[in-house]
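Supplementary material to the annual report.
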Amino acid sequence: MGRVISLVSLKGGVGKTTLSAALAVELANRFDKKVLLIDANYSAPNLGLHMDIISPGKTVHDVLSSAGTRVSAAVHEKYNVDVIPGNFMFNKEYSPLKLKQKIAQIRRGYDFIIIDSSPSLNEELTSAMLASDSLFIVSTPDYPTLSCSMKTAKIIRQSGRDISGIIVNRVLGRSSQVSLEEVQESINIPVVAMIKDDRRVAKSLYQRVPMPIYAKRSQFSREIGKLAASLVGLKEKRKPWFWNRDMRKEEVNREVLRESFYRSIFKN
Ligand SMILES: Nc1ncnc2c1ncn2[C@@H]1O[C@H](COP(=O)(O)OP(=O)(O)OP(=O)(O)O)[C@@H](O)[C@H]1O
Ligand SMILES: [Mg+2]
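Predicted assembly:
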């Protein structure tokens, strides 16, 4: 039974779509998993542009709006990932439960279902939250985003859901940014990945090639690879101890994440 994972944040532009695409591509290509990637940012969908699907036929909007459209009709295969993109021209509201119901029809065929969500605090975000088994908050290391991430966490907790971890994106490694410790302490959730700001992300988007393929050896792609490894229950490869004596905080957090995902694989 496929595990449904959403990347969420109430702040726009933090990297949800970029990271959803990268995580899906990494799980499919490096770990040989069957992955479905869904655009649940219904009012401003752009996942297709990241995955090189320019003018899709059927989309998530068709699946949610018409009872006659089978989910499989909206699946477009790209980079070894099954993608359900959105349609920019559609504007209609959907019952927040609909996505979960549609996913239930096909989740048996997948190992992972990754949902790229909307930054708006509305039924779009609720739809992703209701459909997911695990939620990850994406944040950038600055105070305005951190305050939004605190609010995101509060809303998720109020809905009775757990948060599996925070992915900190666009790290510059400068003292002017908020530290991992500060992010963790303010939101009270472990940071499971620290992804550096990388100019190649813009280039990869321009060419519509997700980062794990465009720049496989970048810190961005290696960190996504380590996160993906913990989701599939594999220990991450570490440098020999004399180079790397102390585990970084995010590595320790991923180890905990790996164990919790590993347990849940056996539960299903
Ligand atoms: N690690 C990174 N380094 C450099 N640029 C990045 C990085 N991650 C994302 N970006 C850039 O940030 C911009 C926003 O990314 P993206 O569209 O993935 O954010 P989002 O959270 O999905 O936005 P929205 O909430 O509007 O859907 C894009 O131009 C993307 O190329
Ligand atoms: Mg997005």
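The domain at 3-267 is CATH 3.40.50.300 (Rossmann fold).
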